[in-house]
Specification:
This protein has 426 residues and is of the alpha/beta class. The chain is built from 20 helices and 12 strands. Strand 1 and strand 2 form a beta hairpin.
Length: 426
């Protein structure tokens, strides 16, 4: 976490992992939290992630339906404030025997203490007021009591419900409205940092999320080559690259050829990014990818940009027919990771590695075998080997695990497994 000056303001900036902790703290203390951040970087996603953790903590199922206000579910109620009128928050007045009374919205009543008492339930959940600073002042005013006093008129929010809000910052050039000081000071505030693509030292970053969530190998390769494109504002384009945009592009390009895939990027991340992605994928057009798989040593002669492009293409081919290509790719990974391109030498190397798996091996023998294996290694390209393995995992996690463990090359690349896991999984 860091302090950062943003648009002449001092802000408290946190990572996605830290934000999860902050949301959990906000829930347990019922202190409202406001999350600031650039568009498309995962504010809503992180709130949902924290809600999943809380649901598990309290032995409940996560639900986004207000109809599941009961003892079995943890609610995540997303109120997109830009779409709300004040009456959607506070309800409307009606006359009862000449007396004006409030008719509360159904969603609000179902998270109230009155509802708990009448139905014999204990409500737990988060009310997420998303895009609060994009809502007009009248709608913001309607949320005052909800945030300030945890009640609206006579209706009090259940003790097991917390209020979280989020909004974009001025740099997004959104039509925002300043929060009034009484509302602003009731919240605690954090600013979500734009995620790094990959931090090799800490094993954190969007890359690890992307691998676990099946992002297309061609996007992983492109962003590994140009990580600054993960979030990159482009003046004058309809949209621009964001983590959310790359996720959309991955879905759109599924099953598409390299020649077609760039259109998915253009639609989700902007035309400029689409053109850059097309140029990147064209780098592998001049290469016989099948020949690279048969003779991995050819990979060493490519320019660095071509290497990234070829890996994206190789794994894309694998994703369409994993049964056919899995072992070929694992052989490719083993050779570029060890720098051993002679099959017989590689087999000898693997046999040495298997011997090292014997826990009964004495220290002197272990050191002798380790030294001999080390002498056999050539110019290693661990970064590209890891990218290939990670992309294979992203393409089909379950198949990858099976293929990896039954492969004849497993012992040669077992040391890489730690690099496939984010820091939170270790």
């Amino acid at each position: 976490m860091v302090w950062r000056k943003e648009m002449e303001l001092n802000v408290f900036e946190v990572s996605h992992e830290e934000l999860v902790t902050d949301i959990l703290d906000a829930y347990e203390t019922k202190e409202p939290l406001y999350i600031w951040g650039r568009t498309g970087i995962g504010k809503s996603y992180t709130v949902r992630k924290a809600a999943e953790i809380l649901a598990e903590r309290y032995g409940r199922k996560l639900s986004e339906s207000i109809r599941d206000a009961d003892n079995e579910h943890f609610l995540l109620i997303d109120r997109r404030m830009t779409l709300r009128d004040p009456t959607d928050i506070i309800g409307v007045l009606y006359k009862d025997n000449g007396v004006s009374k409030w008719h509360y919205p159904d969603w609000l009543y179902r998270i109230s203490k009155d509802y708990e008492k009448e139905n014999g339930v204990e409500i737990r959940g988060i009310v997420f007021l998303d895009e609060l600073n994009l809502a007009p002042p009248l709608t913001q005013n309607a949320a005052y009591s909800l945030v300030l006093d945890r009640r609206l008129e006579d209706l009090e929010i259940a003790d097991g419900v917390a209020v979280i809000a989020a909004g974009n910052i001025e740099e997004d050039k959104a039509y925002t409205f300043d929060l009034a000081d009484p509302l602003k000071t009731r919240f605690t505030h954090v600013t979500l940092a734009v995620p790094v693509f990959k931090d090799d030292e800490k094993r954190t970053g969007w890359f690890y999320w992307a691998v676990d969530n099946g992002i297309d190998s061609r996007i992983l390769a492109f962003l590994s080559f140009q990580p600054e494109k993960l979030f990159h504002y482009v003046e004058g384009d309809r949209t621009f690259p964001t983590p959310r945009g790359w996720e959309k592009a991955s879905k759109l390009m599924k099953g598409k050829s390299n020649r077609e895939a760039w259109r998915a990027v253009a639609k989700a991340c902007g035309y400029v990014a689409g053109l850059q992605f097309r140029q990147f994928m064209e780098l592998s057009n001049a290469v016989n990818v099948e020949e690279i798989l048969r003779t991995p040593q050819l990979f060493t002669k490519l320019e660095i940009s071509q290497k990234f492009s070829v890996i994206g293409s190789i794994v894309h081919i694998y994703s369409k027919n994993p049964e056919k290509y899995a072992e070929m790719l694992l052989r490719f990974v083993a050779q570029i990771f060890t720098g051993i391109y002679d099959d017989d030498t590689l087999e000898e190397y693997i046999s040495l590695k298997k011997k090292l798996e014997n826990e009964r091996l004495d220290r002197e023998e272990r050191e002798r075998i380790t030294a001999k294996a080390k002498q056999m290694e050539g110019n290693k390209m661990a970064e590209f080997a890891m990218l290939t393995l990670s992309s294979m995992k992203a393409a089909n996690k379950e198949f990858f695990v099976r293929a990896f463990h039954r492969s004849r090359y497993t012992s040669a690349i077992t040391d890489m497994l730690v690099y496939l896991l984010p820091s939170s999984a270790r």
